[in-house]
Amino acid sequence: MILIVFDVDGTLVDSQHLIVAAQREAFAAVGLPAPTRERSLSVVGLSLPQAFTALVGADGPVEALADAYKQAFGRLRARAEIRESLFPGAAGLLARLNREAAVLLGIATGKSRRGVEHLVAVHGWEGWFSTVQTADDAPSKPHPAMLEQAMAETGIAPDRTVMIGDSTYDMVMARGAQVAALGVAWGYHSPEALRAAGAHAVMDSFSALEADLLKRIAAA
What we know:
By secondary structure, the chain is of the alpha/beta class. It folds into 2 domains: 2-14 and 84-219, HAD superfamily/HAD-like (Rossmann fold, 3-Layer(aba) Sandwich); 16-78, DNA polymerase, domain 1 (Orthogonal Bundle). Helices cover 48% and strands 15% of the residues. It is built from 10 helices and 8 strands. The strands form 2 sheets. A 6-stranded parallel beta sheet has the order 5-4-1-6-7-8, sandwiched between helices. It has a two-stranded antiparallel sheet with strand order 2-3. The longest helix is centred in the N-terminal third of the chain and has 17 residues, at 62-78. The protein starts with a strand and ends with a helix. The model has no long low-confidence stretch (mean pLDDT 95). Keywords: Hydrolase.
């Protein structure tokens, strides 16, 4: 048995436009200039308090920004003004892995549990994930707690666990939990940054990722 854990934003879901728009509204709500798009995306993967602390400093209006962001994000998503689209290939890979008897799927994300439940419902993934770790359940990435809890819940050892993500936070978390760290090149952090953060490999397509995972499943 092998546990394959996915990050969400930047890995499965191309949520950059929604995230940036919600951040802009949040900064406007507290009367501060919004960060650049690049800076906004650099903190994707962190839990909201940590993300806004990184953007404005510990002495900034972190709590107010986080509250305004949640409201803006929910409003924009509910109106479908900006869509959270799956990256091409994401749905097919998850469906393929879900059919594998030797695979347990997991999620480790900076999203809230409510956000993950919405995503699962929209895409019909109910019952697919054996463990879901969110910003509500554990310290923010890159702390290894999300993966440690995922392994504890499923009974899978580190040498049979894989973390897949697009951010340096995912890679550092994976290395801290002593699991395989696979980066993806289509997200919000560069392949060079992922390798520097400890990625064992960086995949440039979902087909390459699938081939790698099938080899791991066969060897498990």
